[in-house]
Amino acid sequence: MTAYVVMEPPGRSERADTTAFVRDGFTWLGFLVPPLWFAWHRLWIEAALAFVVMGLLSMLGQKLGLGPAASLLSLLVSLYVGLEGQGLRISALRRRGWHEWGVVEAGWLDDADTRYALETEARSDQPAPGPRMVPDAALARPSQPGIALGLTHVPGRH
Predict the structure, then answer these.
(1) Measured CA distances, 78 to 25, 29, 53, 114, 157 (Å)
(2) Residue partners of 3: CB distance under 8 A and separation at least 6
(3) What is the pLDDT of residues 11-22, one digit of tens each?
């Protein structure tokens, strides 16, 4: 089973197709081509940053005369995007005003969509919880001005 983080857009409408499902886990496409994966998910700043950092690491490795190991330095960026790419995607959605509905576990994306729809339908069928009766804290005990640390308070004396 795979966990999908369900993100709802700001000003949630009743259209179910506006919800984003972000699979929690390693992303192979993000590992293989990080800038393209970022661009596909409209993370433009991250795509440009990944492209520049990968290029700089590769050039730095060639300047230092590391040979084939120079290209492997850019593999660090690929590994980071593969491991943390989905988290960066969730963070970008939060910055855009989306909010996290919850997590759905399913084998495939279609199953996650179905489980989400059933869960939201079940939540809307339940009546809203009544107001909680919480006593006022000010009425619980009378205020005791002038209490000193470690000493008992005597009413009328300061």
Answers:
(1) 15, 10, 11, 33, 72
(2) 23, 24, 25, 103, 104, 105
(3) 765 555 688 899
Tokens of 144: 């005791």
- Phi, psi values for residue 123, rounded to 5°: -70, -35
List, for residues 28-44, the tens digit of each pLDDT value.
999 999 999 999 999 99
CA distance 54 to 41: 19
Cross-strand partners of 22: 5
User: What is the tens place of the pLDDT at every residue in 84-111?
Assistant: 999 999 999 999 989 888 899 988 888 8
Buried b / exposed e over 103-130, threshold 16 CB at 10 Å, is ebebeeeeebbeebeeebeeeeeeeeee
- DSSP H stretches of helix in 64-74: 69-73
The residue count of the chain comes to 158
Nearest alpha-carbon partner for 37 in 51, 52, 18, 55:
51
Cα gap 8→16, rounded to integer Å: 9
